[in-house]
Amino acid sequence: xxxxxxxxxxxxxxxxxxxxxxxxxxxxxxxxxxxxxxxxxxxxxxxxxxxxxxxxxxxxxxxxxxxxxxxxxxxxxxxxxxxxxxxxxxxxxxxxxxxxxxxxxxxxxxxxxxxxxxxxxxxxxxxxxxxxxxxxxxxxxxxxxxx
Length: 147
Prior knowledge:
The chain has strands spanning about 5-10, 15-20, 25-35, 45-55, 70-85, 90-110. By secondary structure, the protein is mostly beta strands. The chain has a single domain (about 5-145), classed as CATH 2.40.50.140. Strands 1-3-4-6-5 form a 5-stranded mixed β-barrel. The radius of gyration is 19 Å and the shape is globular.
């Protein structure tokens, strides 16, 4: 059975690179915020944080994973429960985690609401070997398209 989690969000802080048993892992947290209005027209907002682990041979994409960068992530989900309030059972917290299989940079977040700057495209499809190329990587003339 395969469960797949896909989401778009912004990094909450810069990614960190660690070596575990001779393998590289890039750790980062992604926030996904949902906004909606209720029947009375009151605006609501809920942010879900997802803790990501990206096990890779090379870590070339890590310097581009900076706080505020918007990313698309796909991978296998897991959850971890822990007691945030050790003195009571009322403090049970669930943390959503993702073992990343595909990671794409979408751009740099912009807090002033203006246009987003595009993040570097180098390594933006790290871990993805699906045969697709980024538009910036295409060098053929447009008039040579087969349609």
